[in-house]
Amino acid sequence: MKPRILFITGTDTGVGKTVLAALLVRHFRGRGISVGAFKPVCSGGRDDAETLHAALGGTLTLDEINPWHFRAAVSPLLAARAERRKVTLTQVVTAARRLQQRFPVLIVEGAGGLLSPLGEDFDSRDLIKALRAAPVVVAPNRLGAINQVLLTLAALPGSLAPKTQVVLMAPAKPDAASRGNLKFLREKLGPPRVHELPQINVSGPNQPVIKPLAALVKSLGG
Fold first, then answer.
1. Is the distance from CB of 102 to CB of 110 less than 8 angstroms?
2. Looking at residue 174, what DSSP letter applies?
3. pLDDT tens-place values along the chain, 222 residues long
4. Which residues contact 83 (CB under 8 A, 6 or more apart)?
5. Residue 204 needs a FRET pair 20 to 30 A away by CA distance; which of 1, 56, 57, 86 works?
6. Helices (H), 109-162
């Protein structure tokens, strides 16, 4: 895969961004590709960063993966303000570029949805633009997913939106809504851009390479 930054964003918080990011890390490592992971800011705990740390197998420290973390379980911006701290876009981009120099592939995970504020002057959309990253939008495959995915794509810069991959995280029990979402979004965006991943435990060892993940990586150019 050519050197690049993949940015995992989502339609909301808790939609499966970390699951996808960890699976991608494991996938690239399994193929012998040097990969890094970066969750620049988080709040209310570091579970996401710890999951990425485990997927990397110790390649990076927890603080390298997640340089800015805040205690309050609110948006990172509000959590930072509560601690009288500040994170800027320049700081985050500088940290990402340092990692990019070490790894041909860097997986960056945002916090919350695309427009959730990460710092005083930026959100995930701003970070995607600054890093010239390839965005991947994650959404739970449930009623309402079509609207949420299309709104997120519409909020991306015009040059990026047509190339953005979409990943639907399958429910435990598929229903008419989840099946319809997948079919419609593939009709709307084109089958190669829309993927569905089954539920999977990323904390277990030696996760198998699943076909939808391999198809996603192929669509991303790897």
1. no
2. -
3. 566 999 999 999 999 999 999 999 999 999 999 999 999 999 999 999 999 999 999 999 999 999 999 999 999 999 999 999 999 999 999 999 999 999 999 999 999 999 999 999 999 999 999 999 999 999 999 999 999 999 999 999 888 999 999 999 999 899 999 999 999 999 999 999 999 998 877 765 545 557 888 899 999 887
4. 70, 71, 72
5. 1
6. 124-131, 145-155
Inter-residue contact 43 to 74 (CB < 8 Å) = yes
Q: Say which residue the tokens 């633009």 belong to.
A: 129
Buried residues in 76-109 as b, exposed as e (16+ CB within 10 A): bbebbeeeeeebebeebbeebeebbeebebbbbb
Domain range summary for the chain, segments of one domain joined by +: 4-219
Structure-token match 């800011």, residue found:
41
| Integer Cα distance of 196 and 88 in angstroms | 34
Nearest residue to 32 (alpha-carbon basis) of 170, 197, 222: 222
Residues 118 and 79: their CA atoms lie apart, in Å, by 10
Distance CA 155, CA 147 (A): 12
Domain at 4-219: CATH code: 3.40.50.300
Cα(118)–Cα(110) distance, integer angstroms: 8
| Opening angle at CA 156, ends 22 and 210, nearest 5 | 30
